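Recap quiz, item 2
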Amino acid sequence: MKPFDIVIVGGGGSGLYAAMEAMKTNPNLNIAVLSKVYPNRSHTSAAQGGANAALANKAKDDTVEMHIFDTIKGSDYLADQDAVEVLCSEAPKIIRELDNMGTPWSRMDDKTIAQRPFGGAGRPRCCYCADKTGHTILQTLYEQCLRKGVFFFNEYFALDLSLDGSRSRGLIAMNMKTGKVEAFPAKTVIFATGGYAKMYWNRSSNAAGNTGDGQAIAYRAGIPLKDMEFVQFHPTGLRKSGLLVTEGARGEGGYLVNAEGERFMKRYAPEKMELGPRDLVSRSLETEILEGRGFDSPAGKYLHLDLRHLGADIIKSRLPQIREMCMYFEGVDPIEEPVPVRPTAHYSMGGIDTDNFGRTIMEGVYAAGECGCVSVHGANRLGGNSLLDILVFGRITGRAAAEEAGKFNPSAIPASEVTDKEQELRSFMQPRGHYERYGTLREDLGHTLGANVGIFREASKIKQGIADIESLQDRFQHVRVFDTGDIYNTNLLQVLELKNMLDLSETVAEGALSREESRGSHTRTDFPTRDDEKWHKHTIYTYEGGRPKLAYKPVTMGRYELQERTY
Amino acid sequence: MSDSTIQHHEESRDVTFRVHRFNPQVDSKPYFDDYTIKLEKGITVLRALGYIKEHVDSTLTFRAFCQAGICGSCAMRINNMSKLACTTQVWDELDKAREPGVIKIEPLRNLPHIKDLVVEMDPVVGKMKKYSNWVDSRMPEEEWGKKEFLVSEEEFQAYDKATDCILCASCVSECTILRAHKEYVSPVVLLRSFRMNADSRDGIHDQRLAGLVQDHGVWDCTHCYRCQETCVKNIPIMDAIHGIREDAIERRGTKDTSGARHAEAFMDDIEKKGRLVEATLPIRTNGIGWTLKNLLPMAFKMILKRRTPPPPPLVKASKGIQSLRKELKEMASHVAKDHEKKSGE
Amino acid sequence: MKRYAYYQSCINEAMTKEVDRSIDLWQHDLGIELVKLHESACCGGSNLDYVSPKQFALVNARNIALAEKLGLDLIVSCNTCLMTIRTAKKKLDESAALRAEVNEILREEGLEYRGTSDVRHLLWVLIDDVGLDVIRKKVKTPLSKLRIAPFYGCHILRPSTVLGKDDPLEPTSLDLLLDALGAKSIPYEHKNRCCGFHTLLVAEEESLNVAAEALKEAMDEKADFIVTPCPLCHTVLDGYQSKALKKNGVKGSIPVYHLSEVVGLALGYSDRQLGIKRHIVTA
């Protein structure tokens, strides 16, 4: 079988952009996109807010420089400044390019692309399409890939890189519809599988499939990960599902109330109250729950987001989507009842360590988007920069792979790799005396991560978390797949996803334990301040002997010196 | 504020999910499995199915991804209607259950079945490709990224609602004509075609339209409005279908397809008689040959029962036909003026 | 005697004359009087609004204005006429500019569209104005031995933004009426589905498949007959029945009655009086 020039794993924003750009760069290349869901289902669709770019359509004095500074400051100075420069200076071009190919951006009176203010940005530079920006970008990219005839392998689950010594020669994946394991010999592989924040399970706003598959495959193949301990929490997730109630609810005047009926934000942010910065509000909710002032329910402890005083008219006219979400997912009408909320894991800043072209240390293997870590978000991502990241670095990586594919000449993937893998997957289905259900393990993992490696972290708790993960890894050895069929075996799929989350959770917890400071999303109660002298550096994880081995890497600085981060 | 301190005391009850099962590898035909579980109010159908899969029967197979109503993965038929499991509350469905306490769950229709609640989505993608459901930019690719197109708010509004579509295929599942003929373009592809044709950045409007008026295209829709009523995003899909028809008549005239000729016949009759002349409608739509072949055998029966529509000379004109004709003529001059204004812009 | 303006649908003037004939028989029994609007015009089916949206608005503004002139609601006994005229009414009610433009033309005929008359289906009048209790009392020949498959048709239900009387996918009104007439209405899936009429001339194969499926389900459910409030559905399910079933390899046949005929039967009128013998498929 002739090797593919590029195999892209993941059909979200960065994967599709990479595919399109690669085809543009060299139309003769043989490119395949593998995705475990139909590409239009990818989690890019859930991004509502928008993408930042200093187009200066709205604020005429906005500049790329200002966007760079906002991003670096937002990252708590952990972002690499050269990478941020690439991100922000490419931003206007990529937004226009999306426009040129048909993205339905909202418009201003002068018919140019509309922009709105967003948290942490000095100017209104967030380009949007109503509250469905990610969805419309994803649809547009998918449509354009169909137009260009990109070859899709939909509902294929990536299993392993195939290695020839220390080099990649392609990918092994399972076709969900047949259950067959198939080899994809490839000169280059791009991982674009999104984030890993679903490891927090019911305490995550992420899609069920955001299980860090690309990161886990790369990691187990010896490719280092970076800054995994940085996971962003959003203050108001719904109690049962972890799904987001967007900031707009508080923007319109919603109250956060504890079980004693108190608007507790007055003790944390007396002036800004409910509208304090995201990380501060998340920490406040968590404190209330930890100190016993939360409500209790079978689905866990929670607080109230009370909108009732706004009245039915305002709720219906200004917050219709939020009301719908509360009714759909929590069965609560905010006109009648307060909404049960608690903080929820939302975004993974860490990922596969790459350079500014998406290259990893392994020749021919690339990563882009939330799956990779260039790093442009550092310790905390700014709203409106996640869509931008996947687009800009999806494109750059697609081009780099297209230009470099010719350099690699991989050996064939031996047939035994496929058959061995099939054997391995079959072994999960063997009846065994004592067995575990993956559903329980998955919930337990989310629970221990939320409790011990969540918003507030301290050495003793993180150690507990690490011990829990270890025991879950042991229990995983006994997980049984009850569905013994080949066709569309989601039982098997979810077990494999669980394994990916378990392996990555070790890096998150180990990184959190080692980083003895508080920076961005990483808050150590036992080390409450930022410690630039010791910790102004990236954490790097390598898979050795089945465990993460930690090392560090300096942050690339540029024209912006370290400063205290205040707003 | 005081009552926000009250704890949520939620009702719970036993609910039975009667789920369509079929694994082609082992089952000779589909069957239903009943799962009865205790649930708390406020739970969605998807979470209930997830609970069953994790704790009761791990072989139960369905798609789910975002769980938030935006990815479109979990569309299935719940109590005989296609919808997203993740946005459907169990308690709402209990109200609609035919058998008390039993919620029926089946896969989408009109798409090839894979297993349990999973159906093949490739036919939808195939039709998106066939009808060029993308913007084919008027700007050459080399120029991309340099400057924005200028797009008016009105234009954005014209396709704003259509871009809400998440390709969940609920409309595909409920479509009357697709059920009768699998080649039919399908509501979702008509919706998306309309959206592309309304976009001034697109350069293949006429080509796309030419495809849409062919057999199994836009004229085959039977106006049953099921797509629109079932749409999980409340998109007025029929408006889009009518929009394409209006566009087709405006750009391609009324002579090129049977659908357009059929529509035009109504206008003609109203102008002449104020009433429909049903007897000649088949001939005017499909020509004399088709009519003789398809309708003659039935005509005999109809004549026996005196059910045949009267021939054109015997169709009595509506009593007010004189004034009606005058009024229609006047309105026609308004329409002509509108067109002048539009093309002058 | 409550009075209404009655819209004369083209099909009832031509092919399904039995509809108006049976209504004429029993309207006074139920205390209603339908005043025929002889000057009204064809509503345009579901076609005219995309051939010429303005002519569509004009024709139907005029149809409604004729009723308004009499100060009466406009009653319709064809689903598609109902949906079409109500669609026009919605557009007129939502746009002052369109209203003004139309009224300027209608003025010459001494007509004005004001939006004061509602446009309703005969079925709705029976339920909401006459009342099920009254109907129950007036029944002379209860249809108690009969299993009837109600076939609503689309345009009395959908689009719900225009119709809005019944749940667009789980309707009950016809079932309630049948219950009042003493009949047993059977639950079956096709009761809210499409008959295929509107593609009969454009995509005949599809239409016949659609019709055959509905007929087959009603037969499988051992219905004695189908009843429909729409003459277009009747034309397909009755007139095209043998062709549709033959094409789909289904044996047997099932009579299809109009709503107006079933009411007539329960009120004691005979098949012959009601014109039921004119159907292609007879019991």
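The two ends of chain C are 35 Å apart (CA to CA).
Chains C and A do not touch (no CB pair under 8 Å).
End of item.
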